[in-house]
Amino acid sequence: MRNNQTFKLSALSAAMLSMATGFATPAFAAEEAEVEKIMVTGSRIARAEVASTSPITVVSKAQMTKLGITDVSTALRRLPAITGASANNQSSSGANNIQTATLRGIEATNTLILLNGRRMVGSDEDGLVDLSTVPFEAIAQIEVLKDGASAIYGSDAIAGVVNIITKRNYEGFEVNARYGQSSEGDAEEREVGLVMGFSTDKGSVMIAASSSNNDGWEEKDRYMTRDTDREYMGGTDVSSGTTPFSRLSGFGLDGTDGKTWTVPDASNPSQVVLFDYDEMGYNYRAAQSGANDNKTNSVFVTADYELSDDVIFFTELSFHDGFVQGNQAPPGTDTGWYGDNVDTPNAFKRYPDADGNNFGVGPNQKYNPFGIAGNVTRRFSEYGPRIYKTDNNIKRYTLGLQGTIFEEYDWEVNFSSQSAELISRGGAQPSINQIERALSDECETEADPTCVALNVFGPEGSITTEMLDFINTTAPVVTNKNDLMFMQAHISGPIVSMPAGDLMFSSGIEYREDQLSMEVDQAQRTATFDVSWGESSTPVISPVREITELYLELAIPVLDSLEVEAAVRYSDYSDIDESTTNPKFGVIYQPLDMLKLRASYSTGFRAPTMAQMYQGRTSSLTTNLYDPCNPNNEANFSSSDPRCVALGLDPQYSQNAIQSFDVIGGGNPDLKPEEAENMTLGLVVEPLDNLSFTLDYFDIEQTNVVFASTDYVIDQNLAGNPEYAGDVLRSNNGTGYIQTVIAPANNIAARNLSGFDFNANYVLETDIGEWRINLDTTLMDSFEVQDTSDTPFRDIVGTYDAAFGSIPEWKAAMQLDWSMGNFRATWDFNYNSDLKVLVADTDPNDADKVIYKTRTYKVGDVEKEDIMDATFIHNMQVGYFIDSIGTDVHFGIQNVFDKEPPYLDKGVTSTDDNLYSFRGRFFYMGVKKEF
User: Fold this and answer.
1) Which residue, 671, 660, 547, is CA-closest to 615?
2) CA neighbours closer than 13 Å in the CB half-sphere of residue 691
3) CA pair distance 139, 64, nearest whole angstrom
4) Which of 182, 323, 616, 864 is the Cys-Cys partner for 538 at CB 3.0 to 4.6 Å?
5) Could you tell me if 255 and 613 are in contact, meaning their C-beta atoms sit under 8 angstroms apart?
6) In the chain, how many domains are there?
């Protein structure tokens, strides 16, 4: 049995690659035919024919190496089917915790991540799996099932499945090293890894380990991110009005009708000038990271041992330690903003005046030169940048038995215990309560002798270390702990012999326990919120979610050229008041040797995450400002929208100088599972032995989606819907800019997606080497989003959307490989079509109807459309294998032509950094030594 098992596993890679590219699989020798059974992603039946009714893309380790890729996240983001808001280590500003994949552009919670066909524990409050946690050296290939698979794998597989397949039965010792640096002299990457393994007649062991130490870069060191005043690129100014010198209102100053003042001379603090946003706005990009530093250490161990001729024991052990660090601008405070914020309803209101205004700085505060109360906005640049740090620790233990019974039936039982701890530490933060004390009349008097008064009237440097120590609070800390345990048992084999072959089945049972514990330090808790410019949250201790599932899968050979698949899974969740049953049907038909037709239909579901159900009220800041009444966030209100006029908004208070607003959300224990219907239609054409084409159509209809849309809430508020009357809070007693939007999640949304995947693969052997061309393309035909059940669908194909990120109409990746003897070379490119930013507007023909149009912005008197242009990003690599020392060396360039990302005026990052990177041209070299 040992030899048979080995053959099955070693045949997997070649067979899956053959299926992915469309090549015919060569027939094996007669004596090997009895063990020629392969299990592909999307099915639990191992069978001789390598055929799937659903589209599958396979990325081999060799392909990734030729592209200079050394992690799963980067490999997946290159695939055209991966689009939208995939988090990665190239995102700017702050500690980005984990790396994810958004298949078809739907949130990452809808893509199931597997390791060797088994679930992996999540890292954050939404249970998202960190793709960086498996050592690259352990990976054999990545299989991406681009179809719903709830009937096969259960919850979360609505958009599809990513299955990371590790090496098996590896013998030998291999060391890899890689070093890279950008053309700007930063973004250094240092990686080293090893894999070793041995096997005997009875068993095998493989150990893979990797360590990386990668640097990010600073926003000030890149052309497109060096300044918040983006007019030099034809964009708008998104500088902050919270500056290292004071911005004052009140204090008895003339012209307090929306104007603010500042003190230009520290020696004359009572002499003020008008605050000029265009000239005095703060460039926070000078202090922020463009990409974060990250370090990882990972170990993966797999072993198996033959207990008898029919039983094998196996185990997988995995350990990961990750660290991410990034910078954001120094913190600050705005006593007027906090005075109206729902998180701090009573803050900075000690000194009201006769006109009903509330002020936070006392008239007799130690440094107040005016003798009259007022409000101040001040950034505490004396702190230096806020340093955000994240530690991610994961442990996985899996063991089981597998074997055969009655010579024809494969079985397996396994147990897995997994845990993850993600600790996020915010940068230096002042306390709201302490700032309020330090700005009061009582500070440093007999009424409050231990207080240290805060001098917010001087220029940068006027706040001393003693003052900072007094207002400082503990850096915000959030600790996520996820625990996953599962037990599985399944059996598969033939049921009955039919004229076209054996009717095959697979059946199994799974029991799973899942739990989230999220701890939040006291300063961030909503009820006691005390972190200036932070986000409020609440701890989560979820119940143990117990999931029991049963499944059955059939493979029915109707004719020699026609096979039908059917599967069904029953799932019961202990904390959701309903069970769910999801079927899948598929068919594959080969009328000609060169042509295969395939189709599938399935239903799917996604259980709400623990945080979505059990977290209390949360508050988060967003820089994706949306306000139809002030679309450009200009200092002078200019909208003629009748909805805005009806609000009685005041032009003098229209500008949100903080460049963000507060979003109030939280958990909902009454949430139900999201549901979906998936359909695929496809064909595989192989006109020549070395030429193949695949074309697949996909259609996903998703309902009952858990969604929270601030844009929708704002639109409904403007439309006068009484249910949303109190959900949008504006400054200046409701007449100014948006401060807070209350948008909790609920089962209110729906999506309809459809499109086409096309692949062409050609191998040409010549006297001057072997050439291989592979082209992958995805056309997103429609991506219709319905924010709530009572609103019309809107199509976001070809747009950048705040909720979904970039959804290009066309994405493509082409790879050209050449090899001859010990030499090889690769050239590849990625293409994204152009993207627009849409905003809601009133239909000129129907005042009650909301329409979406391309967002425009003004630079001076010139009006521009907010569009990201189409891009080609090229990469290359050359390599040589040195026979005499058994060493492979390669050198490569990513972004060969140093292509800048396309400009995006929306938000504050100048592009969509989930899709593009500001890193620029990147040089790298690698060495692999086999022993």
Assistant:
1) 671
2) 4
3) 10
4) 616
5) no
6) 1
Q: What is the pLDDT of residues 536-570, one digit of tens each?
A: 888 888 899 999 999 999 999 999 999 999 999 99
State how far the Cα of 903 lies from the Cα of 348, in Å rounded to an integer: 39
- Cα gap 133→421, rounded to integer Å: 13
Q: How far is CA 507 from the centre of its chain?
A: 34
Amino acid at 786: Q
Interval 686-703 mean pLDDT: 95
Tokens 């005997």 sit on residue: 200
In a domain, 492, yes or no: yes
Give me 140's structure tokens.
Answer: 């054999």
CATH number of the domain within which 308 lies:
2.40.170.20
314 is in which domain, residue-wise? 6-26+37-218+292-326+390-425+479-613+668-708+744-834+869-919+926-930
pLDDT at site 645: 79
Three-class SS state of 278: helix
Which residues partner with 84 through β-bridges? Answer: none
d(CA 791, CA 794): 9
**Residue 909 DSSP label:** S
Q: Which strand ranges, in their side-by-side order, compose the sheet holding 139-145? A: 56-60, 139-145, 160-166, 111-115, 118-119
pLDDT in tens, 221-272: 999 999 999 999 988 888 988 999 888 988 988 655 567 888 877 677 778 8
Asked if residue 20 is part of any domain, the answer here is yes
Question: What does the DSSP 8-state code read for residue 710?
Answer: H
Tell me which residue of 608, 643, 852 sits closest to 728, measured CA to CA.
643
**Per-residue confidence (pLDDT) for residue 877, from 0 to 100:** 97
**How far apart, in Å, are the Cα atoms of 299 and each of 193, 209, 452, 630?**
10, 4, 50, 52
Q: Is residue 260 a part of any domain in this protein?
A: no
Strand partners, 124: none
Whether 805 is covered by a domain: the verdict is yes
Q: Which residues of 840-865 are buried (b: 16+ CB within 10 A; e: fewer)?
A: bbbeeeeeeebebeebebeeeeeeee
Distance separating alpha carbons of residues 175 and 678, to the nearest angstrom? 43
Cα–Cα distances (Å) from 535 to 392, 421, 739, in that order, read 21, 21, 14
**Is 590 in contact with 561 (CB distance < 8 Å)?**
yes
Three-state SS letters, 768-783: CEEEEEEEEEEEEEEE
Q: Tell me the CA distances in angstroms from 133 to 115, 139, 394, one per residue in order.
A: 11, 11, 8
Residue appearing with tokens 């010792």: 173
Q: Which is it for the CA torsion 335, 340, 343, 344, positive or negative?
A: positive
Beta bridge partners of 120: none
The helix (H) or strand (E) run that includes residue 438 is helix 432-438
Tokens of 549: 């599932």
Distance CA 73, CA 64 (A): 11
Give, rounded to a whole angstrom, the gap between the first and last alpha carbons of the chain: 29
